[in-house]
Amino acid sequence: MQTVTDAAALRAAIRGWRTAGQTVGLVPTMGNLHAGHHSLLKLARDRADRVVASVFVNPTQFGPGEDFERYPRTLAQDQAGLAEAGCDILFAPEVSTMYPFGPAASVSIHVPLLTETLEGAHRPGHFDGVATIVAKLFNLVQPDLAVFGQKDFQQLRVIERMVRDLSLPIKVMAAPTLREDDGLALSSRNQYLSPAERARAPQIHATLIQMRELFVQGGHAWQALEQAASARLQRAGFVPDYVAIRRAEDLGAPSVDERTGLVALVAARLGNTRLIDNLIFD
Ligand code: PAF
Asked: What is the CA(95)–ligand 1 centre distance, in A?
């Protein structure tokens, strides 16, 4: 595996693959990689001849007071894991490569509507930062396909919308969420949890499962389900930002008689750590 930090070297390597008729998959990450990221890489590996993974802690998707400064940066460890997972190129640019005019002066991509709810409502500007950096990575790599985790469900939908609206010739693929044995979704932010918080954290997944069970058993009053789930999380020591049942397609609020194609999404704070998760009601 080659590690590349500048755009020209990245483009030159990819040009060589293209000349040889090979397809390219991209796995964008912010590093501090775990088994969940490695599963994204495996999906890309299975579907493309060559795989590029990017590691870049993107400043424009963090709001004031969020964890940009303390976000774990573990490049040497990430390199070893990616090489083992069969990555061909690790692209690990500096901020000045991705934002030549500085993050504050960057062109910004805004995906309307979808970004105004849930995460977008609680983290203003977050999805502009995500869409902007992903568009920049897409322009640099020009992949045939790109893989994103389903754990960041809204992010996945935002990127799909951007790709479609901008007519980008890229297949966006979703990789299922990997979980610990107790149900906690794998996330780089889990390491911020104290032992006591870690013991409570699986309550998010347990609550989502309970919501789905109640819904399947006929409890279709989804607003009541949301309220009960939020109360359950609060009793377990969480401070929920939202607990929501939405249409999986466009994250709109379902109508009273909608029974299929729904997803439950949660964002909740446990101490200083903000966790998100979701479950499709299939
Ligand atoms: O999901 C992430 O890790 C990030 O939001 C992404 C897609 C790499 C953009 O910085």
From this structure: 15
Q: Which atom of ligand 1 is nearest to the CA of 30?
A: 3
- Give the pLDDT confidence score for residue 219 in this predicted structure: 80
CATH architecture of 2-175: 3-Layer(aba) Sandwich (3.40)
pTM of the model: 0.97
Between strands 273-281 and 262-270, the pairing is antiparallel
Residue 30 assigned as binding residue: yes
Residues within a 6 A CB radius of ligand 1: 28-30, 58, 61, 130, 133-134, 152, 155
Class of domain 188-275: alpha beta
Digit-coded pLDDT (tens) for 46-66: 999 999 999 999 999 999 999
Picking from 63, 13, 48, 38, the residue whose alpha carbon sits closest to that of residue 241 is: 63
Residue 1 has pLDDT above 90, yes or no: yes
Which residue, judged by its Cα, is nearest atom 6 of ligand 1? 29
Domain boundaries, the chain: 2-175, 188-275
Q: Which of these, 19, 26, 55, lies nearest to 168 by C-alpha position?
A: 26
Q: Which atom of ligand 1 is nearest to the CA of 58?
A: 10
Q: What does the pLDDT read at residue 256?
A: 86
Question: What is the rounded distance in angstroms from the CA atom of residue 237 to the CA atom of residue 269?
Answer: 9
Contact 111, 131 (CB under 8 A): yes
Average pLDDT, the chain: 97
Secondary structure E strands in the chain:
2-4, 24-29, 50-55, 89-91, 145-149, 171-175, 239-247, 262-270, 273-281
